[in-house]
Amino acid sequence: MGFTKGLHELGDGCFAYLQPDGGWGWSNAGLIVGDGVSLLVDTLFDLRLTAEMLASMVPAVAGAPIATLVNTHANGDHCYGNQLVIGAEIIASESAAHEMSEVPPSMLAALTNAPGELGDLFRSFFGSFEFDGIEHTLPTRTFQDRLDLDVGGRLVELIEVGPAHTAGDVIAYVPDARTVYTGDILFIGGTPIVWAGPLTNWISACDLMLGMDIETVVPGHGPLTDKAGIIQVRDYLSFVQHEATARFEAGMDAWDAARDIALNGFGNWGESGRISVNVDTVYRSLDPAHESPNVIEQFRRMAALEAHH
Q1: What order of strands is seen across the sheet that includes strand 179-181?
Q2: Alpha carbon 17 to its chain's center
Q3: Vertex 136, ends 148 and 55: CA angle to 5°?
Q4: DSSP 46
Q5: Where are the domains of the chain?
Q6: What confidence tens digit (pLDDT) does each residue in 10-31 have?
Q7: In this structure, are residues 285 and 199 in contact, taking their beta carbons and an 8 Å threshold?
Q8: Does the domain spanning 6-308 belong to CATH 3.30.1330.40?
């Protein structure tokens, strides 16, 4: 199946909503249809995109309205459309719900509307999205570790695997369809970004999925995949963990280390500049006293690497 925009039927009442090219903000979502009710996995980065997605799902949910919305994590491209899923119970991990309250859409609106160099920087990443007028709609139910849901007679297992990409990442496993919705535990064709870490937690999450009975894997960004896609992400994270640790132990600065690491086969993935955030996260996990740059500087570094790339 090609990487085309829109709703893709996976079989067994499962669907994926895909948004090429999978880069910054172009996230995927999922739909699991049970007997009389459905579950939505994630909303999109703004109201226009989310409304378009929900409209595409109308035929699929005609006899099974969306009663539950799961947000896999706190990044806005997976939750800023929540207000449009009227009447649904919204579920996230406790850590994700806490983190969601810290990054409201108004913050991204302010950054992308800022004058001068700052606004230019953030528009280069997020200029395609409309953050004004979003009512930040937070989870109504939270959990820790695991939560089993009954979706119209179907089991959906929510498994907290964070902190990894963010503080509270969750995957949604549908055993009867051998399908998993990974949120941003998988970026396919793009470079994973490790905001929270440690990388070892994320590697463990990949190992967990590799041990599951799954055929279809719906990533948070990029085309549909299978276990081969999980292995690629695991290999990238292991590579960065190893290379960054060696430079940390040699006393190299984190930003110098990021620029020094040759990405070998991983350099052709989109958003390769994310290596700077990932290396910084390794340093922070090795040295609790390591001070990471603020988020604006993190984006400056990524932009600098990609301009150079």
Answers
A1: 146-151, 154-160, 170-174, 179-181, 216-218
A2: 14
A3: 70
A4: S
A5: 6-308
A6: 999 999 999 999 999 999 999 9
A7: yes
A8: no
